[in-house]
Amino acid sequence: MAGATPRAASCAFIVVFVLLALCGVEDARSADTVAAGRPLSGDQRIVSRGGKFAMGFFQPDGGDAGRWYVGIWYNNISVQTPVWVANRRMPVSDPATSRLAIAHNGNLALFDRNGSTVWSTDANTTAVGNGTVAVLLDTGNLLLTRASSNATGRSSAVLWQSFDHIGDTWLAGGKLRLDKRTGVIQGMVSWRGRGDPAPGEYALQLDPAGAPQYVLLWNGTREYWVTGDLTGRIFPGVLEVAAWGGSAGYSFQFVDNDVESYLTYNFADNSTVCRFVMDASGQVKWWFWVEAMRSWGLVYAEPKARCAVRRRCGAFGVCSEGAPAACDCARGFSPRSPASWGVGEYVGGCVRDVELMCGKNSSGSRMAEPDRFLEMDGVRLPDDGSLAGARSSGDCESACLGDCSCSAYAFNGICVLWHGDLVNLQDSLGGATGRLFLRLAASELRGTGNHQKWRTAAIAIGAAAIVCLVVAASVLVVHSARGRRISARIQGLSAGDGRVIGFKYRDLQSITRNFSDKLGGGAFGSVFRGELSDRIVVAVKKLEGLRQGEKQFRAEVSTLGTVQHVNLIRLLGFCTDGGDRKLIVYEYMHNGSLDRHLFRAPTSTSDTLSWAARYRIALGVAKGLAYLHDECCVLRLILAPSPISAPLSNFLAHDSVVVIVRIYRGSDARCVRAGVHPSPRERRAHTFGRSGAAQSGDMADVH
Do the Cβ atoms of 635 and 629 come closer than 8 Å? Predict the structure, then answer.
């Protein structure tokens, strides 16, 4: 008996070990799964198998304390960022007494403290009953599938998925979809506001006509911006996406068949953390995570003109492109929610400080003064006006005054009336202007009330200050003020984020001091030194002798923007808004060109290049040429020391010539010929694209 004890103990140990191992496997498989009998409650959560996403109860930043939601967010970044919310319309008050579970009918459902169903997947689970599981994938997609006992714990029978119910965020692999059988369009819908995931007023979706583009809509009906048809991986309305996304390895795809049409996108590197968001401001924004800064970086926002968003400032709000704050209330109005306006949320609009009389001609024993009109000059008139038959300004005013629902009128040969809330008011800033007459209570214009007294005092003080400034002004002050205005116009044109920036011609005139600091010139134009508002020095090249149109020029700039290598100077921006003038902006190398260091007599011993430095320069040039010829299919013809810049850091060579390229397209090949100059050493060569299709061209020997 004593001899048997060790063998029995050994067998028992093996059995226990195997059971523990199997339990560990089951725990690992269930960490990303909600199954029958294993609900989520309180601070419990599930995490996708690769650890990228998590799901559980959460409170949005800025939300009310008693409002909890079930959502999916990024698990491996420091800022909790929801990408999908289950119960957008109906929060629960306490996660500890609520639970997310597989219901008796097999659907994933959220139950409150009373056991009432708050939200459900509502899938057809008749064939499987409650034999279902909810699985969170590393794509951020939540699947409801038939329970499986195979080795992976997965099933191909997808009954429901969150990617078919996108909220305000479009993740890689998700679809903006049009179901041709039902006519249902799946798109993104903004949050109602900061801290409130309920559906808002703005949506992004595939063009209902089936074109390969997406559109922005207000209230599901009013279109206010489109991307243009997708061509390859470029949307004409979003040039920045092509420039940044090419280096990030993303790709768009449009699928059109008898069943559906949809847009989707993906990244070559699955570790990329990036998202499209339909923002509550009415702009669609593309964000990517910058781990070094532990924050989100904005790639682009559309539409760029913030006042192009319909109802951007709500009722009786006035939008301005140039002011620090996008919106202000019209005179006689105040923000409906000052707290929301304080955080940049303006869609709630403004309310009247004093109610209109609206035909109430008596107040006690005294006759009430009728409403009056405030003249607003230099504004862009809102749409949705209605024509009236009045033939004079006075008759038009009377027509509005006689209708209690009339809020404003305008007369310019014809009478236009606006009824109800006045929306889409905008300071024109030199564009098409109009004169609007806004209806206010008489007391607002008579000067009674603290609001009007404050405005009168402000106007008086402002007028006195203007007189003093005019008297004290000098030529130096005038020039200084002009410089500040120019600097303000080019704020935000920093080229450090890797995108191709569209500059205005007047901005390039400013940063180059009207092209006064010439660095050099060549066959394709002259190069000038420029300095951005954030002290970044750039080189601005005025191109000459180019014959292609603006569309071709922008396409070629987009292609060059994707060419990025440590040994190549990067293209930063371009300009085409100066008529036939075309300019490009690229990095500036403070050490000058290489020929100055190779061929000119050194002024001191420290100026002499060592053989090690010369070797590093030659190696850098070779790496740059290899990248151009082999990796991005760019053929660089003539090479001389003068267009090679010598950076201060270890003399790593940059091929600094950046000129407009000509793009050759084969069946599925594309080659770019850059910097073509005639040379006695030219010889015939063939350029091969990725498909092997040959293109004939000229190539100079490089020594």
Answer: yes
